[in-house]
Amino acid sequence: MLEELKELTTCGRPWAEKRAKMALMINEQYQGGGLDKEEYEQLMKDLVRTDKLDSEADDLATKTALVEAIYAIAQLA
After folding, report:
1. What average pLDDT does the structure give for the chain?
2. Whole domain around residue 29: which residue ranges?
3. Based on the structure, what is the number of domains in the chain?
4. Is the pLDDT of residue 77 over 90?
């Protein structure tokens, strides 16, 4: 799923690119010990908050791919 997030950073949809880049940075910080599990999960959930994402997302397939990739790497249910 990290590869999918990396691909989304250049998908041509600014809202998805921005969130994918942020997810990768947050993941890197977590893997490096800069965040605890709770902080990490909360930050990842904030990236895909439905109301904010719904107002920006203009492509359902890209939105779905982004949400699935973020939830997968953060191991969120």
Report:
1. 94
2. 2-74
3. 1
4. no
